[in-house]
Design goal:
With 359 residues, the chain is an alpha/beta fold. It has 2 domains: 134 residues, Beta-Lactamase (2-Layer Sandwich); 210 residues, Rossmann fold, CATH 3.40.50.300. It contains 11 helices and 14 strands. An 8-stranded mixed β-sheet has the order 9-8-10-11-7-12-13-14, sandwiched between helices. The longest helix has 14 residues.
């Protein structure tokens, strides 16, 4: 699926100085930040984005201090513009966040939003950011891969039968990996094979999951307004979701104490859902879960029992030398003198029985 031009038009880049054009255009843009209106300058600024985005671009970074950089799916970073004026960087941040329906100012200087078609923007204003305003833009893949494509790219096609069976049998999945490893894409691909008659309800801090399924309901948290009212957090959305009788409950990325909300929700009889979480390796997943639940005041023993009951499979994505490798494990509880400890046992796929055994 090609990247929609209207989605690109919602993003902005400065036209101050020389630009490196990804498209190889011979004519370099020459518009500079001047005394014209802010909206006009930012509009000129955004039109240059199309000249540096190519099929491999995954991230764009705008920095008042270090300029404009782009990152590719191969892990390479390239500077495409030197330092830019702080007032321009701030204007771009304000406009982008506004496009996502939220507001950023000195009272709320750091905001995360989702734009069209999975484009995600984070901005933090100068002051909090000592060197000046910083804007990070995450671009989704131009194509939404299905599960078979995703596993083929990750050099693990033998996992397809096992994971399809796990989804069909309503196993609850936790997808883990480092930032940019493809956790969200893999979870979306897994949920796309949920039977078409089942209803999927997704709760996210910022809407990011793009699930190719006809019965998906997406709920997004809402920050408080300038008067401190109107906030709707993950906990409240999960509470509302449980009243909506979902067939599959999905919680977007867990970064903090909301992991306890996830485990509690998955222990209410709503199986077959999933979530994502940052972790450096499959072995690190138990300690990561315990640490996040500790933020919510839960002991390791309590967390171990809760997590083991809630999560059926952990799917971890490792990325090395531009290659992805998937490993799958089950959470287990081990009894020690100090109490219960959460651990993970990796599932071997060397034998046919392991691939097609109990998921």
């Amino acid at each position: 699926m090609p990247f929609p031009p209207t989605g690109i038009a919602l993003l902005f880049f400065p036209t101050h100085g020389d630009w490196k054009c990804a498209r190889g255009d011979s004519a370099q843009p020459s518009v500079v930040w001047n005394d014209e209106s802010t909206d006009a300058s930012v509009l000129r600024f955004m039109k240059q984005l199309e000249m540096i985005i190519d099929d491999d671009t995954t991230d764009i970074f705008i920095s008042a201090r270090s300029g404009v950089w782009k990152r590719t799916c191969h892990g390479h970073s390239e500077q495409v513009q030197r330092a830019i004026p702080e007032d321009l960087a701030r204007a771009v941040a304000v406009k982008l966040i506004g496009r996502g329906g939220r507001h950023i100012d000195d009272a709320r200087p750091a905001v995360d939003v989702a734009l069209n078609d999975g484009v995600r923007v984070h901005a933090i204003l100068g002051g909090v950011s000592v060197g000046g305003t910083e804007v990070s833009i995450r671009l989704p893949s131009r194509e939404v891969m299905n599960l078979d494509d995703m596993l083929a790219v990750n050099a693990a096609p033998e996992l397809a039968p096992f994971l399809r069976d796990a989804v069909a049998r309503a196993r609850t999945l936790l997808v883990t990996g480092r930032a940019g490893a493809g956790k969200t894409s893999l979870l979306a691909a897994l949920l796309a094979v949920v039977p078409p008659a089942e209803r999927i309800i997704v709760v996210e801090d910022v809407s990011e999951l793009r699930i190719q399924h006809d019965r998906v309901i997406s709920l997004e948290t809402r920050p408080a307004n300038s008067e401190g009212r109107g906030e709707i957090g993950v906990t409240e959305l999960i509470r509302q979701t449980l009243r909506m009788r979902p067939d599959r409950l999905v919680l977007g990325e867990c970064r903090g104490a909301e992991v306890l909300d996830m485990l509690m929700a998955f222990n209410t009889g709503h199986t077959g859902g999933g979530s994502t979480m940052h972790a450096n390796s499959l072995r690190d997943v138990p300690s990561r879960i315990v640490a996040l639940c500790a933020l919510a005041g839960r002991s390791e023993s309590e967390t171990a029992l809760l997590a083991r009951s809630a999560i059926d499979l952990v799917i971890h994505i490792d990325v090395a030398s531009e290659q992805r490798r998937l490993s799958v494990g089950r959470l287990v509880v081990k009894k020690e003198e100090a109490g219960l400890r959460l651990d993970v046992e990796e599932i071997s796929f060397g034998a046919t029985s392991a691939r097609h055994g109990d998921a």
